[in-house]
UniProtKB/TrEMBL annotation:
Name of the molecule in the record: Uncharacterized protein
Superkingdom of the source species: Bacteria
UniProt source species: Pseudodesulfovibrio profundus
Length: 60
């Protein structure tokens, strides 16, 4: 994550919300493979967040 851990830790501790990292996919040299890997990582992070939210909603 681009923010210092102390900020991330404070936000998580004060809100109970887990912060996820999503890449803006605009850094470094462009390559199709790099873009696809970044997009896949973003989708995996989003999927995990949605599953966790649903689990928490159901009391798990």
């Amino acid at each position: 994550m681009a923010f210092p851990d102390k900020y991330v830790d404070t936000i998580q501790a004060e809100t109970g919300i887990r912060i996820r990292h999503l890449s803006h996919l605009t850094h470094g040299t462009y390559s199709e493979d790099g873009f696809e890997k970044g997009l896949r990582a973003n989708l995996e992070a989003l999927t995990e967040a949605l599953i966790d939210a649903r689990t928490m909603e159901q009391g798990g």
